[in-house]
Amino acid sequence: MIRAVFFDLDDTLIDTTELAERARRQAISNMIREGLPVSFEEAYGELMELIKEYGSNFPHHFDYLLRRLDLQYNPKWVAAGVIGYHNTKFTYLNTVRGVRKTLLKLREMGVKLGIITDGNPIKQWEKILRTDIDDYFDSVIVSDFLGVKKPHSKIFEKALSTCGVKAEESLMVGDRLYTDIYGAKQVGMTTVWFRYGRHANDDLDYLPYADFTVKEITEIPEIVRGLNSEEQLE
Which of 133, 179, 218, 221 could pair covalently with 105 via S-S, beta carbons 3.0-4.6 A apart? Predict the structure, then answer.
């Protein structure tokens, strides 16, 4: 009997692939508008290299960008980048299509709901609160607060414990085959790979660990209903 469904956050509940690209492009455009003396293509390419090297949560992308472009530090350009990025993020931040409908339906079915996400706790909670989905969830586990990232078993075990359910009573839904699906499978959870966003073709070697594959998040309640019906027939 499935008693709880856990979701990844980025590109599972909240559409971040398109959002991040749009926000970064706007940041560079703002910097150039305020006098950054390079082409958009050069600046954007260097920014993407920075993100690849230092990660998306690195707090000094625009400062380092000026260094990589061999330009003297200019706080006006950095501020322009920060403003462009955050204004775009706040304007376009939204849930993946069908998320609210899915969460409401699962709630009506009496299923507990949780989030298991990697990242900075403040940034991840900001996304949850700005999209107004926090009231749907019984548990939110963020890796940087716990001290381990997916696919480490501890983060999944913590989520299960917080919701008071066993692994075999739980479903994990995520867009990353290695971190979400492989990780959850290692502790005995049923897994659903949401093939969506920029990682839709990554880590395909781990596809056998997915019990189900969906392209629409709205398919989740039917999967839960089907699994629970099968168990009742047994």
Answer: 221
Rounded to the nearest angstrom, the gap between the alpha carbon of residue 169 and the centroid of all alpha carbons in its chain is 23
Kindly state whether residues 122 and 202 are assigned to the same domain: yes
User: Cα dist. 83→79, 86, 87, 158 in Å?
Assistant: 6, 5, 6, 36
Question: Would you list the DSSP string of 70-122?
Answer: T----HHHHHHHHHHHHHHHHHH--BPTTHHHHHHHHHHTT-EEEEEE-S-HH
Reading the chain (234 residues) residue by residue, the pLDDT tens digits are 999 999 999 999 999 888 889 999 999 999 999 999 999 999 999 999 999 999 887 889 999 999 999 999 999 999 999 999 999 988 999 999 999 999 999 999 999 999 999 988 998 999 999 999 999 999 999 998 888 999 999 999 999 999 999 999 999 999 999 999 999 999 999 999 999 988 888 999 999 999 999 999 999 999 999 999 876 655
Query: Which residues on adjacent β-strands are paired with residue 171?
Result: 5, 190
Distance CA 47, CA 151 (A): 28
CATH number at residue 77: 1.10.150.520
Using DSSP bridges, classify how beta strands 212-214 and 190-194 pair: parallel, antiparallel or unpaired: parallel
Q: pTM score > 0.85 for this model?
A: yes
Length of the chain: 234
